[in-house]
Amino acid sequence: EVQLVESGGGVVRPGGSLRLSCVVSGFILDDFGMSWVRQVPGKGLEWVSGINWSGVRTAYADSVKGRFTISRDNAKNSLYLQLNSLRAEDTALYYCARGLPTLYPDFPYYAMDVWGQGTTVTVSS
Amino acid sequence: EIVLTQSPGTLSLSPGERATLSCRASQSVADNFLAWYHQKPGQAPRLLIYGASSRPTAVPDRFSGRGSGTDFTLTISSLEPEDFAVYYCQQYGSAPTTFGQGTKVEI
Lengths: 125, 107
What we know:
The complex is a heterodimer.
Chain A: E1 3-7, E2 10-12, E3 18-25, E4 34-39, E5 45-51, E6 58-60, E7 68-73, E8 78-83, E9 92-99, E10 112-115, E11 119-123
Parallel strand pairs in A: 2-11
Antiparallel strand pairs in A: 1-3, 3-8, 4-5, 4-9, 5-6, 7-8, 9-10, 9-11
Chain B: E1 4-7, E2 10-12, E3 19-25, E4 34-39, E5 46-49, E6 63-68, E7 71-76, E8 86-91, E9 98-99, E10 103-106
């Protein structure tokens, strides 16, 4: 069964840091680009970051650029998101999602065909 | 960045009826890289359509997508009870990928 399981969320003070992890199973991570998407409860979906299959190409939303870092370890079947300099507006449920391959393997934007259940990040003093 | 505008904001229909949802882009979507998802309360989004009109294997054929350029449509031919949810479109042809604000399909 194809599965994504996120962890690492929690409550942190403004300016603090967290590292989110997403462990995948049921497929070969090397074959897929991956993304992080967040959602404030009751609100819409916001794309946060994407990474291509090799990890060479990454992309970030302007709202997190310079503060968040996406990475992957294909040997460990894992995707990561390092969150630094957290702000109250970063409070959300963070999903990792698998990207559908396209003709452009170095373009880190995807339709997302498998999603985890999310991990909650709360930034509050 | 490309702004996606979904309409209507809310669609009130009955089971068995046909639903038509619209997604309009502020610029042409490259390669028709337009996806549709639905999301039920407390659940992660589910991919329904990619490439504007392609359907993943497990998605029922009552869901269909069409369109190109800046205008895209998701049609649900006959609503089932489990289809009442929020629907999002997403373009992934231009940087950065963006989502629409969502259409709620309610009973």
